[in-house]
Amino acid sequence: MRNLLPLNRPALVLAPMQDVTDLPFMRVIARRGAPDWFVTEYFRVHPDSCLNPYILRSILENATGRPVFAQMIGCDLPSLLRTAKQLAALPVAGIDLNLGCPAPIVCRKNAGGGLLRAPATVQRLLAALRDAIPGRFTVKTRLGFAGVAEFPALLEIFRASGIDGLTIHARTVQERYQSPVHPDCVKRAVEIMPCPVIANGNVVDPATGLAFLRQTHAAGLMIGRGAIRNPWLFSQLRAAFAGTAPIIPTRRDLLDYVFELYDELARESRRFVAGAHVQRMKKTLAYISHGLEGGFEHDMRRATTPEDFSRICQIHLDAQTPLPAQPPAGSKLFCGFEALGP
Ligand SMILES: Cc1cc2nc3c(=O)[nH]c(=O)nc-3n(C[C@H](O)[C@H](O)[C@H](O)COP(=O)(O)O)c2cc1C
After folding, report:
1. Which of 299, 312, 325 is nearest to 259 (CA)?
2. Which residue's CA lies nearest to atom 15 of ligand 1?
3. 127 C-alpha vs ligand 1 centroid, how far in Å?
4. Rounded mean pLDDT of the chain?
5. pLDDT digits over 116-143, tens only?
6. From CA 336, how far away is CA 171, in angstroms rounded?
7. pTM of the prediction?
8. Residue of 72, 8, 2 lying closest to 37 (CA atoms)
9. What's the CA gap between 276 and 341, in Å, rounded?
10. DSSP string spanning 183-231?
11. Whether the CB of 224 sits within 6 Å of ligand 1
12. DSSP reduced 3-state for 14
């Protein structure tokens, strides 16, 4: 990540999120205050894999002006080496290895977060990939599989691996998304790692972002769900770092964002099917509508047609009311963000 880090403030990164952070989403978010870099959704890597053409577009057609890392997930070394070589030939900022995905189907294959149960394998993969990747090679990890007690040994492997950056989603695999994060572990990594460490998990607004940085001294923040909910978050954090007034978005700003995303995604779909498109949008909307007063979330669950979708958005969002800075306390979707404190 060296040479990519801003000189006088922490870095801000959009977290990779499967089926969300594709090329249209990158475009829409960049218009509201781009992150310093992007990371693609993961490319699945196995002996028969080829590069997913849809994810490839977020590299080849990225016109946001911000670099993009290509993320791989897998455990078969020859396939990872083959894929890393293919990706390194593309206009990527670097190559990232996913050591955090908690999906049971991924972990069962000992990929993603499942690999954290096999530190010796992690060590072997990192060594071989480090040798093979000429440019930046980074890792995105969790703190362990079953408990944070696993982290010191993993950290030692990361420290000795020669990677160029470490992003830590500060939970274990078994904690999935259901717990507060563990800033103390990120702080320890910042002290030990010879490369920049990026803190990830539960940043939902400038206050939680600043608190996470204060508690960890990380080189930057990676933000996922909080940036879907509030695409102005990168701009707001930049304002907080600079001590200037942040944008305070309104419901109408949110309406523009939702409609823009709807249109961008529709434009890019190979075969537009209205009902399927509404369902696709509803998955992303779950993070956006969550906890907004007035029944938006409830009504949106019932939308099946583009007309429903548009009407429900207009009814609930066409207003100049400022948006709440944080999700509701006790949120199930943004579980434990309150523990980061202001
Ligand atoms: C819908 C969804 C898809 C995700 N897909 C990926 C992925 O492809 N690669 C990855 O490294 N992490 C993935 N993650 C994890 C996020 O990158 C991030 O680590 C996690 O959401 C915690 O950050 P947040 O609290 O800011 O959302 C995904 C998370 C979500 C919610």
Report:
1. 312
2. 17
3. 25
4. 97
5. 999 999 999 999 999 999 999 999 999 9
6. 11
7. 0.97
8. 2
9. 39
10. HHHHHHHHHH-SS-EEEES---SHHHHHHHHHHH--SEEEESHHHHH-T
11. yes
12. strand
